[in-house]
Amino acid sequence: MSAPRRGTVIILVAGAAALMATLVLAFLVRMRSDGEESNQVVRDTQARIMLLAACGYVLEAGRLGYDRDPQLPDPAPHEEGYGWIDVRDGSTGPKDRDGNALYATGWPAVGGTAICPMHLWRRPPWAIRTTVVYNPIDLDRNRPDWGFPYLTRPDPQPAVDNNWPTLVDDSRYGDFAAGDARPRPTSTGMSWFRVHRESAARFVVTCGAGATNGYADWSEVQALGRAAEFGGDEQAFAEARAAEQRLWYRIEWSAAVAPSDYHYYDNELGGSHSVDQYFFHPMNSSQTSPSRSTRSMMRCPNFVGTIRWVQRLWEPPGAW
User: Fold this and answer.
1) Where are the domains of the chain?
2) Which are the contacts of 93, defined by CB distance < 8 A and separation ≥ 6?
3) Closest of 240, 305, 287, 299 to residue 43, by C-alpha
4) Fewer beta carbons within 10 Å, N or C terminal of the chain?
């Protein structure tokens, strides 16, 4: 082969290699772009899910979660709230049964803010084991208890060891009640919400998907003494803030609940409904159609109030 022909082959090979490298680079860039867009969709979805979590938190915080310390002796009364606007007299709550505010300063007072990172605990309070069958029916025909559903083992059992099956005791009851609040490493830095009580029944909800744990800025991190969560590095917090998604909403709580004045309905309809002991219909109802006037006792979804409306905010409000 002559020298010019060898040079032509080299040029063709180099050109083909350059073309392949360009195509590979374009493919990698496109894949990176698609990955970033997918991550954005995931973050946006996680943030919107946090809106549901925040609404549930607001609903329950006005009525539940104020029970007395279980370590205190009885017969102290169990505390409960009576709504963000007290259903008894219309005053600003939540208040206990004696009309005393269930807070001093901060959340849940007007102007207070709750920050809720949504990681998983290593073990929640009062956790039980996930064992499904503690007392399986023996299938061995040669054993005396074959085929009998004997309940010889406690069911359920606590996730904290209670020394079963030897000498069962309550030495670790405190651990069982308190749980293990350490976050599971695989669940951190994913999503959070924060709720700011704007007025008696209105709240600003900030929903986030990212690793800032819900802190507004570095100054708030320092003011709350949480810098260790970011290794004391302001730049690490700034990078987490730049990568996350934040959405703002304003919501309003209402004390309205679905009616629960339903009486026993078993054996009134006949057919397939006659065996459903959880079937109810409204009192004084002229309708008896199952599709229009009946419901089961499991369809009372809002014992603690209702979210009257949700407003999307395009920009963060002055206080959140």
Assistant:
1) 50-120+187-254+307-320, 122-183, 262-296
2) 62, 81, 82, 83, 84, 85, 86, 101, 102
3) 240
4) N
Query: 190 by DSSP, 3-state: which?
Result: coil
Mean pLDDT of 206-219: 94
d(CA 63, CA 94): 7
The CA angle 12-15-21, to the nearest 5 degrees, is 140
- Residue of 251, 227, 245 whose CA lies nearest to 313: 251
Instruction: Please state, in angstroms and rounded to a whole number, the distance separating the CA atoms of residues 193 and 114.
Output: 9
Q: Which pLDDT band holds residue 227 (cuts at 50, 70, 90)?
A: very high
In this prediction, residue 203 has a pLDDT band, given cuts at 50, 70 and 90, of very high
Q: Residue 143's CB: how many other CB atoms inside 10 A?
A: 10
Pairing of strands 180-183, 245-254: unpaired
- Which element (helix H / strand E) includes 307? strand 306-313
Backbone angles phi, psi at 67, to 5 degrees: -65, 155
CA gyration radius, the chain: 30
Q: Which residues contact 103 (CB under 8 A, 6 or more apart)?
A: 94, 109, 112
Exposed/middle/buried for residue 301 (C-beta within 10 Å: 0-12, 13-18, 19+): exposed
CA distance 220 to 262: 50
H or E segment to which residue 247 belongs = strand 245-254
- The total of other beta-carbon atoms located within 10 Å of residue 63's CB is 19
Nearest to 251 by CA among 42, 56, 117: 56
Give the three-class secondary structure for 72.
Answer: coil
Has residue 5 got a pLDDT over 70?
no
